[in-house]
Amino acid sequence: MHPLSIRQICELTGGSTAGHVNLSAIIDGCVIDSRDVQRGDAFFALEGTHCHGAEFATAALRDGASVVIVDETAASRCHCDHVAVPDAEIALAQIANRNRQLSDALIVAVTGSVGKTTTREMIAAVLGSVHPGIQSPRNFNNQLGVPLSLLELQEGDEFGVIEIGASSRGETTALASVAEPEFAVVTRIAPAHLKGFQSVQAVQHEKSQLVRALPDDGVAFLNADDPLVAAMASVAPCRVITFGTSETATVRVSEIDPGRQRLRLVVDGCEYTVPACGRHNATSAAAAIAVGREVGLDPADIDAGLQKFRSQPGRCCVAEIGPWAVIDDTYNSSPASVTAAIRTVEEFRDCRHRILVLGDMLDLGEQAADLHYSIGASLAASQVHHIALIGEFADDVVEGFLASAGGVNRISRFSDMTTLTTMLGCLLSDNDVVLVKGSRSTAMERVVEHLRGLATDQPNGLRRAA
User: Fold this and answer.
1) The pTM of the whole model exceeds 0.90
2) Are 89 and 132 in contact (CB under 8 A)?
3) How many CB atoms lie within 10 A of CB 19?
4) Which helix (H) or strand (E) is 5 found in, with range?
5) What is the predicted pLDDT for the residue at 459?
């Protein structure tokens, strides 16, 4: 971050000192985890799930923090010198916004129901091919993650790609006011976080707030292939650039050639290659190309950036594990991403069997059962040879599958992970492709770990049970 004195921080946040706080001390970093403290940091003692950060304030100062910042209501729990503020989370956002204002970097904000992280990483890869800059670490996209991301901006950075998420109404507006983006990218609107939003229309309205927040000289980048995203052009106070395969797209993808480890696409006669699996990633690549073109990068630089992209663990990563191709897509799950997963595994042609191992899609509210039923119907019409299910809503998937004339021998439902992984070992043949997917808390990565163990134990491959 750009350095600020403790005095400036107090003025900015309405903070007051307790004890012997050196107001002239310079702060050049902010952390919310005492284990991450480095010399010169401000440690924000926040309320945690199991304990309060005030309990670690003394240790943070001992480890080099220059100041502890804590809520006024929790200041009595902080047995050391500190700065008390009306609200520590708001103070963190205020300092992050000041850091953003002190920076000359172009701020690109990315939102959507699915594809945010991949799109953010591709945009950062493209811009980073020519310019220095930062992007949100991991999935830092909430009321704490966005400020912490903005605080990564330092002197000399020319861009910052910031992921914006929301699980309830009003979050996007609040985060946009902190980030103050000049560019906004919207990937796709789909059923997600329905406990907080209740409907896809409410999701669309929430995500559109990022577009509404743009300045007059900003640019909104909208997915032309998604009508709910494309409709946001009507609320944009600035120029709109669309991307996708639609003939109306400003940046149009005319060819897509998906492979196991790479995706080739053609945009306006120029060919680009991305080391990624799945046709759905063409949307993210198109968004990155659109942003790159807008800032003046030539196709060669954009392609060089895209080729440096690497999928994060659990996000449609392909690994050759023993005699199988295993697609680890376990980071999270929603109806839209499961549909994309089905299409991805269908496109593996040089394999013996296509197998999908599916856990629950969570945070879908009252629509959960119906949405799982719909996935079952989609699977019935797919070219997936076998589906292995586990979770609370597995029966709904089976019901939708059988109601849509799916063959009963193509689907299995398991009540526990041990049985699933045991039977999966019997089901698999050499040269099979296995895609594993489920919402984060279902821990479906255990299936991938089990397959790695099987391949290690029996390196010459397995034979199907007779």
Assistant:
1) yes
2) no
3) 11
4) strand 4-5
5) 55
pLDDT value for 465: 40
Q: Given pLDDT bands bounded at 50, 70 and 90, which one contains residue 56?
A: very high
Which tens digits make up the pLDDT trace of 164-204?
999 899 999 999 999 999 999 999 999 988 888 889 999 99
Distance CA 85, CA 209 (A): 29
The residues near 39 (Cβ < 8 Å, ≥ 6 apart) are 64, 65, 66
Q: H/E element holding 254? A: strand 251-258
**How many CA atoms lie less than 13 Å away from 369 in the CB half-sphere?**
4
The mean pLDDT value for 210-228 works out to: 98
Distance between CA atoms of 117 and 122, rounded to whole angstroms?
9
3-state secondary structure of 354: strand
Residues 6+ apart with CB under 8 A from 314: 328, 329, 330, 331, 332, 445
- Parallel, antiparallel, or unpaired for β 159-163 and 133-135? parallel
Q: For all residues of the chain together, what is the average pLDDT?
A: 95
Determine the Cα–Cα distance for residues 74 and 343; give it in Å rounded to an integer: 51
For residues 459 and 322, the answer to whether their CB atoms sit within 8 Å is yes
Question: Which of left, alpha, beta for 427 (phi over 0: left; psi -120 to 50: alpha)?
Answer: alpha
